[in-house]
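Chain A, query sequence.
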Amino acid sequence: MSINTWSVGQRFVVALAVMFVCGSSAAMAQIFAFGADQGPAPVTVMGSYRLLGQASSRQGTFSEKPPDLWRAEVNPTLAIYGIPITASLLLSSEQQGLQQNINAFSVTLDPDAIRRIVQQRAYNALDGYLRSEAGSMLGDYENVRDSLERFHPEQLKQLDEMRQLERFRDYGQGDIDGYEDVLSEMGLMSDVEQVMVNLPTVGVGTVFPVFTPITLSGARISGAYAEWNPGGVFYIAGVGGTTQSPLLREDRYQLDTTVYRSVDNSDFGRQLYGGRIGFGKRDGAHVILTGLWSTDDASSLTLPDSGVALTPQKNYLSSLDFKVEPIKGIWTLQAEVAASMTVGDQNAPTFDAGGDVPEFLLDMIDSSASVYLDWALTGETTVNIPSTDTRLRGSVRRIGAGYNALGVPNLRTDYFRYDVRVDQRFWKRQLSVGAFVRRDRDNLIPIKKATSTLFSVGGTLGLNVRGWPYFRASYAPYVQESDSQDTLLQYRNRTVLWSVSGGYSYRIGSLSANTNLTYSQQDAETKQNLYDYSVSSISAMQSLTFTFPLTVGVGLGYIIQNSAQPPSTSIVTVDGNANYAVSTWFSTQAGLTLAFDDTFGTRTGYYLGVLAQLGDVADIDIRAERNLFTATSAVQPPPLGQGYSENLFRVTVSKVW
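Chain A, predicted structure.
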């Protein structure tokens, strides 16, 4: 039946249905906003996801990562009437019994999501204004202000608002504190959102809290975390949970004809609890006291009776950090001092104090025979003078040999460092110069046979004149030495690093072209010149963009490595790549890499790939690679056997909305 034969009643029903659907869509549009760049709405959905799959014919050399793997990451945020809730999920086939858990899931009440949403709205509004005809007035404010005030006051009001957004972006660095009023007046931030940004942050599941770099940073905690900084006046935070699960790992290695076994890469189950309290703004001026307690479960793992260095530990840590701005916007000063007490072995023998020491203190340290204490200090000051384009920075860092923070994996200890740097711009920021000095020293308490020091001083130069080629240069010598009385342990290594680079973007007829040249040199002198070496490299890169959607690039390089201890070598490298945009949402890529090493062999690699954007649903990246290595038979034993061939296929599907 054709539409023309429909009765009046049928047409009326269809019209009502269309109106209902359209009305529902309009209502849904008023209620829901998908993406951080949309305006305020009762319900806002934003976030990201990333799915990765890889298949390879070979496991990487010296790598524990499996050749075939998949990984899924999903991070959605749902803001319901300004209440932001973020979920984070990570699943991976890389999870293995010989390592700690990789998979993670958490749910967080996340006020920072509101800040990110408002920030994105503000940036989009500013970008839209800059692209409009009125956008040119932003850079000519002083000349147009009087005229606009007299004849176009509404345009002046908009211009003043955009100047505020520009300050928000350039000087406020996207921090909405202090800009709430202008953001609200412009309709970029609702009244509810102004209230909700002061909610506490609460996370449950697998969380990665950061207190400070020397107390808690980088640790994975299965538990809960909360942080609250209302109005930037009062600050409180707390965390608790498991940082590692019990893991018994037996590694084997062969020395000569003997096979040794080690379980020192095993882990006891570990718990961590901590809190912070203070005044001021977390990222601004503040004074905050931190306390942390970490302990291993000694009964969670059964180890051999001998030949094992792994012991169950316990760690108490406290710190005080502050930040002040003696001259707001110009001079900042911040520092932290921390102390730690560590029980190195909970099973170590204890002593009887005979009642002279309070029982609660003995309970705290558990085993005095393995207790050690130390302290750490960090400090930094910066001076920014916008009127002269001057920036000064100085820092100091002292981490004691016995300082221990179980919430900071791989924390380097036993060193004192100071670092000073100055950067100055001239000629409307087209010329920049910089200089730095750094010194490191270890053996802070004389428990080692020798003290090592490292001293470095250097400078940088940059020239970026509009319409001319750019030029950059750097020079950085440093000396590392030991004061050991034992001549076998003495060393003095002097290394000089310097590089120069330049480039230019220009046109060849209808083509856009870019040329870059780089030369770098590294020279090292060692004791009695036994291990001297030098590395020189030069590279050239050329790219061309055609009027049709094709971009190609080619690179040539030459590396010379000379060493007092053979072998020395020279390497010639060739790189090429091309990108062709079939449409606005689909493009293809291809590339080739060659390395001709006259000592070790030849490496060849090439890849093919496609990129596709499926609207607001997905960005798809598909890539296939083949890598070949042919070892030189003159080198015995040949590196990596006689060589290898590797095929790799990777698919990534992702989106940020």
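The first strand starts at residue 32 and ends at 34. The chain has seven helices and 29 strands.
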